[in-house]
UniProtKB/TrEMBL annotation:
Record protein name field: DNA-binding transcriptional MocR family regulator
Sequence similarity: Belongs to the class-I pyridoxal-phosphate-dependent aminotransferase family.
This protein's UniProt keywords: Aminotransferase, DNA-binding, Pyridoxal phosphate, Transferase
A single BP term in Gene Ontology: alpha-amino acid metabolic process
Amino acid sequence: MTTHEPTSGGSSTRFDPWYDHYADRTAGLSASEVRALFAVASRPEVVSLAGGMPYVSALPSELVTGALDRVMRDHGPQALQYGSGQGTPELRERALEIMALEGIRGSVDDVVITTGSQQALDLVTKLFINPGDVILAEAPSYVGAIGVFRSYQAEIAHVLMDDDGLIPQALRDAITRLKADGKTIKFLYTIPTFHNPAGVTLSWERRLEILEICRANDILVLEDNPYGLLYFDSPPPNALRSIEEDGVIYLGTFSKTLAPGFRVGWALAPHAIREKLILANESATLCPSAFSQFAISEYLASADWKGQIDTFRGVYRGRRDAMLSALSEHLPEMSWTVPNGGFYVWLTLPSPLDSKEMLPRAVKELVAYTPGTAFYSDGGGRQKIRLSFCYPNEETIRTGIRRLTSVINEELEL
Ligand code: PMP
């Protein structure tokens, strides 16, 4: 199985002749224990509910080839050249248009195009984190963000969530505790909408409350929103950035609404921060891919991109429904979250089952999932499993859940 999410880092050992040469920050680049298994699980007979790959086959390829042809015909020399470290003005305008769908207003000057939102996570962390600084993050949190934070030697403080997202009182308590310990809290990293991995969405009331808590404590908010437009039933509450401009850095991406292969995302930063962000972007990559930016602008100008997002929503809604009904049928005594959008269901195993220990046996039974431990920096999540419904079709999802059920039942009988 391939997975788009980071599964590894440098696993330096005494057998590595450069062991003593690595920078201290590489200690945070820990190899994922599940990486080896994921390699085994890439066999076609294994049903993978583990990766988070968008179903790009739902994007008609002629929409892309048409856009690419026009890029070469109309903008060839520019598209093949280096470009601005901030990104093209056309695409920054487009990003604003897309963000307006979630209530966000902003200036094109404050949009910075990046190489996926993953790179924006890296740049923001680089700008703000000294070793030992604290980043508040949901419990659980996105595995790729945890990896970035570790690589800058941040301390990650997980804050509890429930079905309505991050719990405001838990955030207050964490801030009080960390301050009493003399810690420096730099920002709150949050995925308020269709959370990865938990699948839940922060309620509107809590959005207001959480922004208020961060404002009162002088804590910047890093809002990561790759899935907001992929809702199934009703649209989610507007983005945090639509409520608060000065204290929120917003991250968006074309990876889920178009295709991750372009590797294009963006940050909308408070005006004071965006200059540093551009400098950091230039120092990391000189500029985001001009070719990808031209291609996406061309696609947005010529294709019914909102209709295409509706198509993706329809596909993912059907897959979510297939997963939820299979879970209800086969594992009725267990609990899981019910996502109204995005890619993931978060399942709680009955004790004493351990999702990490169970994974090799699941792969033997030809089903793979991501154990909850990947989404915590503190060893939590042993009783949790992330199930992705984005890539396999409905029939395959049902097969996967049936296999998972027999693994769980066998474990319970042991
Ligand atoms: N944030 C979250 C929450 C994600 O799920 C992902 C992709 N899985 C990313 C960031 C990175 O996305 P990209 O770099 O493709 O924009």
